Amino acid sequence: MTDPNLRLLYQEVILDHNRYPRNYRAMPDATQSLEGFNPLCGDRYTIFVKLRDGIIEDISFLGAGCAISKASASVMCSVLKGKSVEDAEELFGRFHRLVTGQEDATQHEAELGKLAAFGGVSEFPMRVKCASLAWHTMKGVIESRSEKVSTE
């Protein structure tokens, strides 16, 4: 990701979702929820999901963490609402490849949409766990895990 204009746009997406997170709320009628924790930096989120017939009818989060982790949770919730569990698992894989540098955001920008904003995370290996915490927690939710998710 060398285009400076693209980098600025991506930074704005992350800053906007950090300042004004979407779907930041508890969900009393969630069918499942799970807490995720990054012991390295202290980021901690609970992901709430309402599943119906294999579809993520609603998804939200609560917790605290750095700008990258909060923005990632916010974008994740926006992107996954209304998707099937299978689509969510596919997007989890794509997001993981993106933040670990295995997928180039600039080559797949149209398909990735706002997720492409996290392509630059791969340049900062210590931030990969921040960006992926909510995603790993969501994966634990849809797999019906009961133990807290940790990035360690």
Write out key terms for the chains shown:
single chain; 152 residues; alpha+beta; four-stranded mixed beta sheet; 42% helix
Describe the structure.
By secondary structure, the protein is α+β, with helices and mostly antiparallel strands. It has one domain: Sufe protein. Chain: A, CATH 3.90.1010.10. 42% of the residues lie in helices and 18% in strands. It is built from 5 helices and 4 strands. The protein has a 4-stranded mixed β-sheet with strand order 3-2-1-4, with helices on one face. Strand 1 and strand 2 form a beta hairpin. Helix 1 crosses helix 2. The longest helix has 16 residues. The protein is globular. The two termini are 28 Å apart.
List the helices and strands and how they pair.
Layout: H1 4-19, E1 32-37, E2 44-52, E3 55-64, H2 67-80, H3 85-99, H4 109-112, H5 128-142, E4 149-150
Parallel strand pairs: 1-4
Antiparallel strand pairs: 1-2, 2-3
Helix pairs in contact: 1-2, 2-5, 3-5
Short précis:
The protein is an alpha+beta fold and 152 residues long.
